[in-house]
Write a structure and sequence with these properties.
Layout: H1 2-29, H2 33-36, H3 39-62, H4 69-74, H5 81-86, H6 92-113, H7 119-143, H8 167-196, H9 201-232, H10 243-268, H11 272-294, H12 308-332, H13 347-379, H14 387-404, H15 418-424, H16 426-442, H17 450-471, H18 479-488, H19 491-516, E1 518-524, E2 529-532, E3 535-546, E4 551-561, E5 564-569, E6 572-576, E7 581-585, E8 587-591, E9 594-603, E10 609-617, H20 620-637, H21 648-653
């Protein structure tokens, strides 16, 4: 009965979403405020109904109701409780319910917390959100019913893909979807502004919190996916330019550009048309990621390889919303005022450079990801575009961006003083240069460019520190004055500085582990030893072990350094009986120096085992930097000026003005 309740809740949610999409637009056109106001309760009711459906599906998984086809295909009675929960979204059908739930949550949040929005804008935004929800609810009901029954009910399930039975994968998809779907708010605000033909700095102020929240979730979601692939798949790396990895990276790049572009629009009433276009493009890339993962066109450990007919449905959704939004943009954009002017050397100019480099980098990733698919579709020829292409196209674009980032916050709006900003950054530049020289001296045999990458990371970190110290007049004012300025400094200033510093930490981690990592592939027998990066590993053999829903062979390595015992590492290979598949579990020892990483391979005929041993210097900084970026976004989000429920007086100051006035 619980499955039927969930199914009917989805059908009712579809009806409510259609009402939410249609009636507010009719009300706005007929100048009927009561009809337009239907959007608010409709969005909240839609969230309630989709929530009921999600709870029903979760209940079916937790109680192992194998009469539900989706549960039978993706769960097992012996599976730990955490993975029964994560199994809800560890499949195509359930993940789409989670997608729509997050979409409905954002719409309900606009209804509840968007009281300071102009009623017309709020109604139009919720109407666009309703149309998106209706399209995806129709997709679920028509092609991907998560509540389909099977009769008779099997005794037990087929189990969840073993590589998905991991704590990081329990949380990675919800954060990733919150990022993907969160950008729908920027899209809806953009389309609503185009419908009204009205856009100004207030629009940017309203859209920035939603965009920032989506960017935060996507940042931590990508980081968790990278971390999972690093320690779970046993590949020993953190990023592989996999097409599905790129599918989430592209909207992150575009969303980062959108955040900075919206800042220019809010502060200087400039870049209006570009910001609207960027909002459309960012969510379009999110939709494209959904298509790539679910269409069956990609073979990836990350992908839902499903019926291509579903991909056609998603492609139709993309064509409808992306094509419609771009057509509306082409019609209305020429009627919108362009906004204020500014000198090339200014904070606006620095943010424009930021946008140019980020969008060009996004375009490079887009081409590298989709060109092989397009070529195969047109000619049947299969090619692979891998790291060499992306390293040659993406990295050169990032270098000038990393150089420019610390300058932006130190330049004045409208017309900046580049020599003055450079002078304030002399200490940061000196520290970065000093670190570069030290790294060159330590690593005289190369690689020669890596020390400069470490220098760029320190440049970002020290540049962020310089921004805060300059704004509080450190070393210039009295202690009391510095403390007063520090307390009065907007949280957004701290947030942006943290985000830039987090990027610097990530850069250091990427450069260090890429340039100076060590690797050994060995055939070891029990009693054999090996050395790497100052660690001495003694192989003590392999022992069997039984898990809750798997059996495994565990290798035992005693690790010492300078004669002192450090840790016992236990890499293993797990066999999942229900799923008839295996996974590799790496043994990892993390220290401030980096990760010692050991992988157990296959048994050889002479009693030896294939063993892969890595040392990844400072690799932990990659994910720590992402966490710092996430925290920076959260600090900015709690800035009073960015709260959705801003004081009413702010609404008066930021009232929309018709285009062209």
């Amino acid at each position: 009965m619980i499955a039927e309740i969930g199914h009917y809740a989805l059908i009712l949610a579809l009806g409510v979403a259609i009402v939410q999409a249609v009636l507010p637009l009719i009300g706005m056109r007929a100048r009927d405020p009561q009809l337009a106001a239907v959007a608010l309760p409709a969005s909240q009711l839609q969230f309630l109904l989709v929530g009921i459906a999600f709870i029903a599906l979760t209940t079916a998984f937790v109680t192992s109701d194998f009469s539900v086809l989706n549960v039978w295909q993706n769960s097992h009675s012996a599976k730990p409780l955490l993975y029964k929960f994560s199994g809800v979204w560890g499949n195509h059908e359930g993940s789409m319910v989670l997608w729509v739930l997050i979409l409905a949550l954002f719409g309900a949040a606009v209804a509840v917390y968007g009281s300071n929005l102009p009623k017309q804008l709020q109604a139009n935004v919720l109407a666009v959100q309703g149309a998106l929800a209706a399209a995806f609810l129709l997709f679920i009901i028509a092609t991907s019913n998560p509540f389909a029954r099977i009769d008779p009910a099997p005794f037990d399930g087929m189990g969840l893909n073993p590589v998905l039975q991991d704590p990081a994968l329990a949380f990675h998809p919800p954060f990733l979807y919150a990022g993907y779907v969160g950008f729908s708010m920027a899209f809806s605000f953009a389309v609503a502004a185009l419908i009204d033909g009205r856009i100004d700095a207030a629009w940017a102020r309203w859209v920035r919190p939603w965009t920032l929240a989506a960017w935060m979730c996507l940042t931590i979601g990508i980081a968790m996916g990278s971390w999972w692939a690093y320690y779970e798949l046993g590949w020993g790396g953190f990023w592989f330019w996999d097409p599905v990895e790129n599918a989430s990276f592209m909207p992150w790049l575009a969303g980062t550009a959108l955040l900075h572009s919206a800042l220019v629009m809010e502060k200087r009433d400039a870049l209006k048309v570009w910001t609207i276009l960027l909002a459309i493009i960012t969510f379009s890339l999110s939709l494209m990621g959904t298509f790539l993962v679910r269409s069956g066109v990609l073979t990836s450990v990350h992908a839902f390889a499903v019926d291509p007919a579903r991909g056609v449905f998603i492609l139709a959704i993309m064509g409808l919303f992306v094509g419609g939004a771009l057509a509306l943009f082409a019609w209305r954009a020429p009627l919108l005022s362009q906004g204020g002017l500014f000198a090339p050397i200014s904070r606006e100019g620095a943010l424009v450079l930021n946008n140019l480099l980020l969008t060009t980098a996004c375009a490079a990733v887009f081409v590298g990801t989709l060109y092989p698919l397009a070529l195969e579709a047109l000619t049947g020829e299969k090619i692979s575009v891998g790291p060499p292409f992306f390293n040659l196209t993406f990295v050169p674009l990032m270098i000038p961006l990393l150089i420019a980032v610390p300058f932006g916050p130190l330049l004045a709006w409208k017309r900046g003083d580049l020599p003055g900003a450079a002078q304030r950054l002399m200490a940061a530049a000196g520290i970065a240069l000093g670190v570069t020289v030290i790294m060159l001296a330590i690593n005289q045999r190369g690689p020669w460019l890596a020390p400069f990458g470490i220098g760029f990371g320190f440049w970002l970190i020290m540049g962020a520190a310089t921004e805060i110290s300059y704004r509080v007049k450190l070393f210039e004012a009295s202690g009391g004055e510095i403390w007063r300025r520090l307390r009065n400094l907007p949280r957004a200033a701290f947030g942006s500085a943290l985000a830039h510093a987090g990027l610097g930490l990530t850069v250091i981690g990427i450069v260090a582990t890429t340039a100076w990592g060590s690797e050994k592939i060995l055939a070891l027998k029990p009693g054999d030893t090996t050395d790497i990066a100052g660690y001495h590993l003694a192989f003590n053999g392999v022992a069997p072990r039984q898990g809750p829903n798997y059996s495994e062979r565990v290798a035992l390595f005693n690790v010492t350094r300078n004669g002192r015992e450090v840790i016992e590492l236990t890499p293993s290979k797990r066999e999942f009986m229900a799923e008839q598949s295996s996974t590799t579990e790496a043994g990892i020892y993390t220290s401030w120096r980096g990760d010692l990483y050991v992988v157990l391979g296959d048994a050889l005929k002479d009693g030896a085992y294939t063993i892969r041993v890595y040392f990844h210097p400072l690799v932990w900084l990659i994910w720590f930097g992402a966490v710092v970026m996430f925290i920076g976004g959260a600090v900015s989000l709690f800035d009073r000026r960015l709260r959705v429920g801003a004081p009413k007086r702010a609404e008066t100051k930021a009232a929309p003005v018709p285009a062209g006035e």
